[in-house]
Amino acid sequence: GINKIRTKKNELLFAEIEYMQKREMELQNDNMFLRNKIAENERAQQQMNMLPPTTEYEV
């Protein structure tokens, strides 16, 4: 009786741990992707700041 309950509880805990580990990996991958996007945007912004200002003429 109690052994069966403990076994089932352990199975559920292990399944949840496995799910959480997969979720952690997904979040780490998303985090890396977003960090790269931020770095890319910052580089583009720096390049824009280094361009000579253009003169705009009003018509």
TrEMBL record:
GO cellular component term, pick one: nucleus
Domain called K-box: residue spans: 1-44
Domain of life: Eukaryota
Any one Pfam family match given in the protein's UniProt record, by short name: K-box
InterPro entries for the chain: TF_Kbox (IPR002487)
Single GO molecular function: DNA-binding transcription factor activity
Name of protein: MADS box transcription factor
